[in-house]
Amino acid sequence: MHMSFYSIAPFFGCMILLVALASTRLFAAADAPPHSLPRRVVTLDGLRGFLALAVFFHHSSIYHRFLLGGPWELPPSRPYALMGQMGVAFFFMITGYLFWSRLLDEPGRTNWARLYIGRVFRIGPLYLAAIAGMLVFVAVRTRLHLHVPVGELIHQVGRWLELGFVVGPDVNGYGNTTLILAGVTWTLHYEWVFYLALPYLALFARYKWLHLPIAAAILIVIFSGDPSGFNYSTLFLAGMISASLLRAGMILRLPNHVASVLVLALIGAVFASCHTAYATLPILLMGPAFYLIASGCTLFGLLTCRPARRLGEISYGIYLLQGLVLAVVLRPAPLRAIAVASPLGHWTLVCLAAILLVMVATMAHRCIERPGIALGKRVSDLIDSTTWDAFSKKVLGKKALLFVNKK
Fold this sequence. Notes:
Mean pLDDT: 91
Radius of gyration: 22 Å
Helix content: over 70%
């Protein structure tokens, strides 16, 4: 069978290799600490790693034409174009599911200081490490020469230090600086907006009879407002609806093999019938698939096996650091020549980049993410909640804050 730059067979070959490697003791450092989070959804943990790797292979397929001088745009391959979009879509659904579940489980009792401090220390340390790597890459490529005024350079770097709330500008005149990270930081903006909306969403999470109708109504309003358009909030809402359905006891109890077939059929329908994952139809297909996975569907045991759980633990690193690894492996002139010369050269380097990525992500998880999370917990313990209440009164208003936190 003839292999091209966009053949799908090498993707499956690389994935099988990565799962096999993740099963070895080399990646034992990625195992979740015992009793780290007592109420984790194991299937969603296992899903994360595959989503992050899907985004990686999506970007690796973009790199071929980019290395030839083309624009950074969707690849001319539906599977690889959809792969990255669906990865991001399911990530947003997971976020919506987890934090809406938290509000439903803690009606009126959410510790907002702990939640936001936890988010800062969960997202921030590895993000700053990735930005540091990006700045080192820029410094090497610009040969340590200053191409903009010092004040402007400080401003540019400062924008990148905002933990992803905005996508930073080019740094020191190096064009398309964000593409050093494969542009992945754009999703953090939507994550932060969702987190900032949580105190308002908590108003509707207090009552068992209200949270599901509200989430469904908002989704319907958005869809009906502009069926041909797209709003990223629908992805968070899809995850929230799944959480509300499960909390309301609306669990579709199917044998695992039947649920697994349904999930694969729904995902396959997206690949077969949609040109983008960011539209109404694919969301209507992905939403039920996500609900089944959140309900416990393991995809024939794949999502709960040890390699999947390990890849899930390091998924943030896989997602955030993939651009740096791809840039290091594919951009140097000798390696670039190999990558563009033939599909075999391209896929060989992409596979090596994938292996390097999971290794780097594992080390980053152990040395940066876990210490950052632990530090966030210590900081949370030191923060006086009255300080947060005083701040929240200015943001939400005194009456709204009392209503949200009323026991």
